[in-house]
Specification:
The structure is a single chain. By secondary structure, the chain is an all-alpha fold. It has 2 helices and no strands. The chain has helices at 2-11, 16-52. The termini are far apart.
Length: 53
């Protein structure tokens, strides 16, 4: 594990890991937004079912 840390810290000086970080963060934001929207839809569905019954 120590060698992995050394290689990652050495490659962080280049611009590629930064681009990868931005891509990963963008995907994470999209996934979080999708999860929140789906959660809201599920909550609205359950609330309407409870209200109808």
């Amino acid at each position: 594990m120590g060698t992995d840390r050394i290689t990652t810290s050495g490659s962080s000086t280049t611009s590629m890991p930064r681009r990868r970080y931005f891509i990963i963060s963008g995907l994470a934001v999209r996934v979080l937004i999708a999860l929140v929207i789906s959660w809201l839809i599920l909550m609205a569905f359950f609330v309407t079912n409870v209200a109808s019954h």
